[in-house]
Design a protein that fits this description.
Helices cover about 55% and strands about 15% of the residues. By secondary structure, it is an alpha+beta fold. Helix 2 crosses helix 4.
């Protein structure tokens, strides 16, 4: 069927044969070839096409006649219409079945997330994303976000971007805290700058305590498997806990450095490097290992060790612990943010 219906724009040879057949009434192929001057291959192609489109028919006496286009169209389109109807019935059945399942899901969801339940653990990242989408759609006033770590995955940014723009267009205030190191990632920086042009507010700090999102100061989403875990999450509705999380956010926000376009000059780059080195020094004095320092500052272990090597070279220290104390009075340890 597909091969036949793809050639509805008749080639010249087929159109000439059909018009000739209309004039002649019944004919045989030899007569058609002589009259039309077509090659054997050209005539065979035209005949095959017109028979496939039901525009030529063979009579019991082997004579060939032209068929009515409306009858031919009905014969070709009829089966397609039946297939479409079958697909529509199947689509309706599937939707009906899934709507019934959705009713069960929503009923369970109501029980699970009703006023009597203040916490809900979601181990499935897909369900976490769906719940954040749902909370974003319901949000009317404000979103508070802490995003520890450096660069955000591209897939996460692609999902968050239309969601954030939709909230901003409704007048929702969005405030987000990142770590300084996010300014080094071009993809995250582009996302931040774009959302800021639409009204989002963004600041950065050396360190952030935990990942969290708070909607309208009523519902919070926090990691269920650690402060920076991106997999499972806990939905929190308990007012005292949500208030506590907002209380963590506000003083951090007041200490944050306004995001004004990431790294735009060598001075910006040096200032950021100094801020990161300052944080590394503080953590070295505390005896924190390289991997933990990198995780807390949102940088790679390789970048962390490069900064440590520069600090060691600058101070002439023989140990990392000693380096922290040798520079304790320098500006590095006085950097803000």
């Amino acid at each position: 069927m597909a091969d036949e219906t793809t050639a509805l724009a008749l080639p010249d040879s087929a159109r000439r044969l059909y018009e000739w057949a209309l004039q002649r009434g019944g004919f045989d192929l030899k007569e058609a070839r002589r009259s039309l001057g077509l090659s054997a291959a050209g005539l065979d192609d035209a005949v095959h096409l017109l028979f496939g489109l039901r525009l030529l028919r063979r009579l019991p006496d082997e004579q060939i006649v032209a068929g009515r286009p409306d009858v031919a169209a009905a014969e070709l389109v009829g089966p397609l219409e039946h297939q479409i109807q079958d697909h529509q019935r199947l689509t309706s059945q599937i939707r009906g079945d899934f709507d019934a399942l959705m009713s069960l899901y929503l009923a369970r969801n109501h029980r699970k997330h009703g006023p009597e339940k203040a916490f809900d653990v979601l181990p499935d990242p897909a369900e976490v994303n769906a719940r954040i989408d749902e909370l974003s759609e319901q949000c009317t006033r404000e979103v508070l976000t802490m995003q520890p770590g450096g660069r955000r995955p591209a897939t996460e940014l692609d999902r968050a971007y239309p969601r954030d723009l939709a909230m901003l267009s409704r007048g929702v205030r969005i405030r987000t805290l990142y770590q300084h190191s996010v300014r080094l990632d071009a993809r995250t920086r582009s996302y931040v700058e774009d959302t800021m042009r639409h009204g989002a507010e963004v600041r950065t700090m050396r360190e952030l305590s935990s990942r969290m999102v708070v909607f309208d100061r009523r519902t919070a989403v926090i990691p269920s498997g650690g402060s920076t875990d991106r997999r499972g999450a806990m939905i929190v509705r308990e007012p005292a806990v949500v208030s506590f999380l907002c209380g963590l956010f506000e003083p951090a926000w007041s200490r944050g450095v306004k995001f004004v376009g990431g790294i735009r000059s060598q001075d910006d780059e040096r200032a950021l490097a100094n801020a990161i080195k300052s944080s590394i020094l503080r953590l070295l004095v505390q005896g924190v290992r390289d991997e933990a320092i990198a995780r807390r500052l949102g940088i790679s272990v390789r970048t962390c060790r490069r900064h440590i090597a520069e600090i060691m070279e600058m101070t002439g220290a023989e140990s990392r612990f000693q380096a922290g104390y040798l520079v304790a009075g320098l500006q590095l340890l006085d950097a803000q943010g």
